[in-house]
Design brief:
By secondary structure, this protein is α/β, with parallel strands linked by helices. 48% of the residues lie in helices and 14% in strands. Strands 3-2-1-4-9-6 form a six-stranded mixed beta sheet, sandwiched between helices. A four-stranded mixed beta sheet has the order 5-10-7-8.
Length: 361
């Protein structure tokens, strides 16, 4: 029988966590699932434990691949292999809540066929010992949105943060396949590149508010072990370049909803400005390194960037002028950096004043 859910689980160096992950799936009351395990070459007993625990259970499907340092390749292969109607991306050091599959199934069947079903996530931080519930869609959210409506809603609610974690959302597999939605191989911040594309392309987004996913922040993960201010600069360069190319493509298509451009500019371009020109970036990342990765982002020209700026605020357009100055005029790079030091000082002051006003009211 065709499974309703397909779990796609990347696995690498998780011998301390994988059994708990398995148990959270096996103990579910709803059993119409399959679990696809992508094992990258590990330094511990990850593969041995997986093969031992899944032996004889045909619901578990295993493939192996060389170590990449990212979940992307395993998620892509797992999506291609999946037979279920809906895909759940589950990290192998995380778990799902007791009985959540039955609740998810009931909610999906009450409103079937949506491309994305955003849920809630419980974050367990093992570093500071705190837990919190995250639901990007508040209880005031519409019962159903188009993709562009979801972009606008999240922009208002989350102040421009349009990169929900892949694990927050149950994805309809046919939607992912039809749009060839894949993670870029090697990226460690897959969500920031994948989620904005998936969200906009979705025809139907149905928030479920179901706290089904238990997310672990642990001391020895890829993210928490990152060292140096420029550790993720290659990632963010690749993400920005890809998203600008995505905008360039879909903005030329019939029916493009231009309302989303300001949202994307606030997220993608503001993030790029901060990553490359904040006081911390200027102090800790050599200018030559920042020039190198900006040249990579804009190696195909500034067309999509310039068109996005037409929809942006005046301060962002002024900032864009100085980004170009920094890239194209080596002798004026000091002036562009000075502008951004002042730019972020003013921005920080305005944010502080806005917060003070909000508190006083």
């Amino acid at each position: 029988m065709k499974p309703f859910f397909s779990f796609v689980v990347p696995c690498c160096d998780v011998e301390a966590y994988i059994e708990e992950c398995f148990q959270s799936i096996l103990s579910q009351s709803f059993q119409e699932w399959e679990c696809i395990l992508g094992i990258e070459t590990s330094k511990d007993r990850t593969e041995e434990i997986i093969r031992e625990k899944t032996a004889g259970d045909s619901r578990f499907k295993i493939f192996t691949s060389p170590r990449t340092g990212s979940c992307s390749a395993s998620r892509n292969t797992g999506t291609d292999m999946a037979q279920g109607e809906y895909i759940i991306f589950l990290d192998s050091d995380d778990t799902i809540a007791d009985g959540c599959l039955e609740r998810l199934h009931e909610k999906i069947m009450a409103n079937p066929g949506a491309d994305l079903y955003p849920c809630a996530i419980v974050v367990n931080n093992e570093i500071n010992g705190k837990s919190e519930l995250r639901d990007n869609y508040g209880q005031d959210a519409p019962a159903e949105l188009t993709g562009s409506e979801a972009v606008l809603y999240l922009d208002r609610r989350l102040h421009g943060d349009l990169c929900p974690m892949l694990q927050l959302t149950v994805h309809r597999r046919e939607f992912l396949v039809d749009h060839d939605l894949k993670c870029i191989r090697g990226l460690r911040h897959q969500d920031s590149e994948f989620s904005p594309r998936a969200l906009y392309l979705a025809k139907r987004v149905v928030p479920l508010h179901e706290p089904y996913y238990l997310y672990r922040i642990r001391p020895n993960s890829v993210q928490t072990k990152a060292k140096g201010a420029d550790y993720f600069m290659k990632d963010w360069s690749t993400i920005t370049k890809s998203l600008l190319a995505f905008y360039d493509k879909i903005s030329r298509e019939e029916g493009f909803d231009a309302r989303v451009v300001q949202c994307w500019s606030r997220q993608w371009i503001s993030r790029m400005n901060y990553m490359w020109f904040s006081q911390n970036a200027q102090r800790m990342i050599p200018r030559e390194k920042r020039v190198e990765w900006l040249n990579y982002i804009f190696e195909d020209g500034f067309d999509s960037y310039d068109r996005m700026m037409k929809y942006s605020s005046f301060p962002q357009r002024v900032a864009a002028f100085h980004v170009r100055m920094f890239i194209k005029h080596p002798s004026l790079r000091w002036a562009a950096e000075l502008f951004f030091r002042l730019y972020f000082m003013v921005l920080l002051r305005r944010q502080s004043e806005s917060l003070s006003t909000s508190i006083s009211n």
